[in-house]
Amino acid sequence: MKNAFTHTLPDPAEAFREANGIVEGAAKRLRLSPEQSMALMAQSNCIVQMFEQRGESPRKALETIGRYADMIAQYRGERFQPRISARNLAKGFTLYCIEPPCGSNTYILRRGGEVLFIDSGFACYAPEMHALLCRLFPDFDGLSKRIAITHPDEDHCGLLHWFERIYVSPMTWEFFRLEAEGQPNFRERNPMHAPYTRIIRILSQYAAPPMERMHVIGDAPDDPDRPICYLGGLDFCGKRLDFYRGNGGHAVGEAVIVDESERLVFSGDIAVNPAGFTAPQAAFNRLAPCLMKDVNMDSGRFREAHRALLRRFPQQRYTYCCGHGAIMDADTPQGEEWKCAILD
Ligand SMILES: [Fe+2]
Q1: Could you tell me the strand order of the sheet in which 114-118 lies?
Q2: Are 159 and 126 spatial neighbours (Cβ–Cβ below 8 Å)?
Q3: Strand partners, 266
Q4: Strand ranges (DSSP E) for 18-160?
Q5: Residue range(s) occupied by CATH 3.60.15.10 in the chain
Q6: Which of 107, 114, 265, 302 has the fewest other C-beta atoms within 10 Å?
Q7: Mean pLDDT of the chain, nearest integer
Q8: How far apart are the CA of 138 and the centre of ligand 1, in A?
Q9: How remote is the CA of residue 108 from the centroid of ligand 1, in Å?
Q10: How far is the CA of 104 from the centre of ligand 1 (A)?
Q11: Measured in angstroms, how far is the CA atom of residue 298 from the centroid of ligand 1?
Q12: Does domain 89-342 have CATH number 3.40.1390.20?
């Protein structure tokens, strides 16, 4: 098989063996199918070519892909040990936060027999997440389950098929429609992001979510000039959650979900908390920028949306439940019920 890696080193046969070895090793550790392994090789080749065009070492790209596979495999089974915390909210609600070693945080609002998730992490950790959730909620399988997602990246959307209803922004719905029709999604239309996105989808066992369970939040009129703009609301057991769209700077379809009654902002990746990463999270989150250069679709727009978000929901008053990293508590104390417990 011809491989771009072979063009850069004095011994093409040796280079080809090395590239093949790294990708095959990754496929083996993650128990990928032959089709997935072939696709991984093809996408790895695309990244190698991108590195070569930039005059960078293709070995670095391949080693990063191998490191991704290592880390995803390393935290499977008993080594999947997220940081888990719970906070009591008013009116009988509880907020849980699950921070896994790899992938996005999962937030869960619970009241009685109903749960609303916000994001869900990688698909490959479904068995570990299911076991964890059954420990956390012994009645988990019988609960009524809904999910709202902050943006359609695979590290946030791995478990969508578990849910009866999936709340999305209008552009996230469009993103998933493109996928369902076999067309390139918004990230895949960006040549810098396409091979990376496809590789992570293969490594994390991502599967496209069921369109028929999606419910679009977006009945408010849009103002294109505003980087953060109100989309509409959702009622969860009497609790109102407001959706605001971002400007697509991090990911097309991104939304921020706000619980005004508790002053909670579920910010997705428009605001993350690197200072609150665990050591495995910090190591894992360093990998994507190696392969994509920039995890944002448009960094200028991202900064604009980030600033607008913090202006609209200042950290002095609002608690930030970020897409990655520990929850950032507001400077102003929350209500009496607000008590945080570290569960694991
Ligand atoms: Fe993310």
Answers
A1: 214-216, 165-168, 144-148, 114-118, 106-111, 94-99, 83-88, 340-342
A2: yes
A3: 257, 321
A4: 83-88, 94-99, 106-111, 114-118, 144-148
A5: 89-342
A6: 114
A7: 92
A8: 29
A9: 17
A10: 5
A11: 15
A12: no
What single-letter amino acid sits at 146?
A: R
pLDDT in tens, 114-139: 999 999 999 999 999 999 999 999 99
Taking the centre of ligand 1 as the mean of its atom positions, its distance from the CA of residue 107, in whole angstroms, is 13
The rounded Å distance from CA 91 to ligand 1 centre is: 31
**Nearest-5° Cα angle at 12, 10 to 16:** 135
Q: How far is the CA of 268 from the centre of ligand 1 (A)?
A: 7
Q: Are 305 and 250 in contact (CB under 8 A)?
A: yes
Burial class (CB in 10 A: 0-12, 13-18, 19+), 342: exposed
Tokens of 174: 């469009």
CA of 75 to the centre of ligand 1 (A): 17
CA of 156 to the centre of ligand 1 (A): 6
